[in-house]
Automatic annotation (TrEMBL):
Keywords: Membrane, Sugar transport, Symport, Transmembrane, Transmembrane helix, Transport
Name of the featured protein: Major facilitator superfamily (MFS) profile domain-containing protein
Compartments, as annotated in UniProt: Membrane
Family: Belongs to the major facilitator superfamily. Sugar transporter (TC 2.A.1.1) family.
MF (Gene Ontology): monosaccharide transmembrane transporter activity; symporter activity
GO cellular component, one term: membrane
Organism: Gossypium stocksii
Length: 528
């Protein structure tokens, strides 16, 4: 239901008739390959930055430190701003691209925005694989970042809008599942290419990103745009035809009318970003921003970016480090599958709260082990402890993968009303990429200065985010997107106070309009 106290076309609580049609499944799988590309970019950077040939060519200072650990010690041998910039530049570019992606998502549609992302990915892959110097390498990463900005803006919205309500959570998590598959694929590729002699293994690692890039581009060419997007752009007949096709039934009139009504209200909002700051939109905005900050402050991307580097730091050999990264990548994939099956059954809150406990315990134990066993210039991490560290990191990764990973994207994409959805998703992606950039740019320096305390730092954030979840994140499972205001925000113990004033204003203005004899023409957003 649209926000602002406006009456829905259908009564609150009605679930629209929808079959799980092949076209929905295929469209969601094809669209979610944007996550595959994102995941590959996340996973591949940590692998190539641990390859001696890559370091010798682009980062000779780091190469010399890895050859002679006595120079800076175990925790500091990879501490280099240029090396961190190689990883983080992608996310800074994605942050900038998000602003443009918000416009294209709204004006050109979700499908075309995904196509633009595919073209950026392909260009970035070509430059990275053929890089001759650091500048060429960074420009390639920036183009990949632009692709990430466009894909992360369009794909979660597309998945939320095209999926039937009862399986929306599971289908939306396909994006996150493909992120984890991309990370695993990158880890496997790195494990193989690290063994290539001749100094070109890293080129193959970066070049194989072309596979998910081509899949996303092909997918964007084949899928239909979402009915919400078509109706939003005034193509009502086409939107109705697509809705009928994806729902697999002719009984789509109630849902179609609600989408048209939501679109009408959305068009009356001339400044969606400014409208995000309105009182009635603050709950969705606060939760969306908090989820992105907390998602990065779990420390997951630090581990996923730099898994081989991290395991090298802890005293694993290069092969063992890459192999351990493959194991954590596989756990990541399997745990995300758990989320797909459980998110629409047990709900969002249960997964977030359970994961908080699991992540906190595993990080604290890792910190204790490293405090006693891994020093600056000596590592006494015997095989038993090394295996235990890998198991604990896998425990941490699995908790994240069925909670904060997918739900950090799912919850914002399903809670914003249509009139601010594109702007809200833009802010969501923007904040996520900003904090991803900060963590990526700072992690190796933090590891150098905090040492084992880095895990205690992230575990402290896990406590904070679990408290926030318990008190302030409402349950949204099995609730139609356009009915979130009535059934979620107006029922929540804290957030309902942000809805009261708006509801009173709507009723008061409605009474005035009736007295003036033009109730039917009343604009419910005119007072916003």
């Amino acid at each position: 239901m649209p926000a602002g106290g406006f009456s829905s076309v259908t009564p609150a609580g009605v679930e629209f008739e929808a079959k799980i049609t092949p076209i929905v499944i295929i469209s969601c799988i094809m669209a979610a390959t944007g996550g595959l590309m994102f995941g590959y970019d996340v996973g591949v950077s940590g692998g190539v930055t641990s390859m001696p040939d890559f370091l010798e060519k682009f980062f000779p200072v780091v190469y010399r430190k890895t050859r002679n650990p006595g120079i800076d010690g175990n925790y500091c041998k990879y501490d280099n701003q240029g090396l961190q910039l190689f990883t983080s530049s992608l996310y800074l570019a994605g942050l900038t691209a998000t602003f443009f992606a918000s416009y294209t998502t709204r004006r050109l549609g979700r499908r075309l925005t995904m196509l633009i992302a595919g073209f950026f990915f392909i260009a970035g892959v070509v430059l990275n694989a053929a890089a001759q110097d650091l500048a060429m390498l960074i420009i390639g990463r920036i183009l990949l970042g632009c692709g990430v900005g466009f894909a992360n803006q369009a794909v979660p919205l597309f998945l939320s809008e095209i999926a039937p309500t009862r399986i929306r959570g599971g289908l939306n998590i396909l994006f996150q599942l493909n992120v984890t598959i991309g990370i695993l694929f990158a880890n496997l590729v790195n494990y193989g290419t690290a063994k290539i002699t001749g100094g070109w293994g890293w080129r193959l690692s970066l070049g194989l990103a072309g596979i998910p890039a081509l899949l996303l581009t092909l997918g964007a060419l084949l899928v239909v745009d979402s009915p919400n997007s078509l109706i939003e752009r005034g193509r009502l007949d086409e939107g109705k035809a697509v809705l009928r096709k994806i729902r697999g039934t002719d009984k789509i009139e109630p849902e179609f009318l609600e989408l048209v009504e939501a679109s009408r209200i959305a068009k009356e909002v001339k400044h969606p970003f400014r409208n995000l700051l309105k009182r009635r939109n603050q709950p969705q905005l606060v939760i969306a921003v908090a989820l992105q900050i907390f998602q990065q402050c779990t420390g997951i991307n630090a581990i996923m970016f730099y898994a081989p580097v991290l395991f090298n730091t802890l005293g694993f050999g290069n092969d063992a480090a890459l192999y351990s990264a493959v194991i954590t990548g596989a756990v990541n994939v399997l745990s995300t599958v758990v989320s797909i099956y459980s998110v629409d059954k047990v709900g969002r809150r249960v997964l977030l709260l359970e994961a908080g406990v699991q992540m906190f315990i595993s990080q604290v134990i890792i910190a204790i082990i490293l405090a006693f066993k891994v020093k600056d210039h000596s590592d006494d991490l015997h095989k038993g402890f090394a295996i235990l560290v890998v198991v604990l990191i896998c425990t941490f990764v699995s908790a994240f993968a069925w909670s904060w990973g997918p739900l950090g994207w799912l919850i914002p994409s399903e809670t914003f009303p249509l009139e601010t959805r594109s702007a809200g998703q833009s802010v969501t992606v923007c904040v996520n990429l900003l904090f991803t950039f900060v963590i990526a740019q700072a992690f190796l320096s933090m590891l150098c200065h905090f040492k084992y305390g880095i895990f205690l730092f992230f575990s402290g954030w896990v406590v904070i985010m679990s408290i926030f979840t318990f008190f302030l994140i409402p349950e949204t499972k099995n609730i139609p997107i356009e009915e979130m205001t009535e059934r979620v925000w107006k029922q929540h113990w804290f957030w309902k106070r942000f809805m009261d004033d708006d509801e009173v204003a709507a009723v008061t203005n409605g009474d005035i309009a009736k007295k003036n004899g033009h109730a039917n023409g009343f604009d419910p957003t005119s007072q916003l």
